[in-house]
Amino acid sequence: MIGFLAGIAFCVFASHRAGKPYDDMKPKRLPWHLIMVLAAFFAVIMLVHMINIFGYETGPENSLLGRR
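User: That's the sequence. What structure does it adopt?
Assistant: Structure tokens below.
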């Protein structure tokens, strides 16, 4: 749960930093858009992990369409 919330919080922070106006005098050091996407991906992985811990099986063999 802590990892999920940390991922969401870091995603929101990176989104805020990516949306700030660009200053030509200061060099851009971090790619905040990429960091935001990676933090959101981490949060989704943590959500799936929590769902698996609570007992619900995920994966292609348990999907609605089944494994082909």
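The two ends are 33 Å apart (CA to CA).
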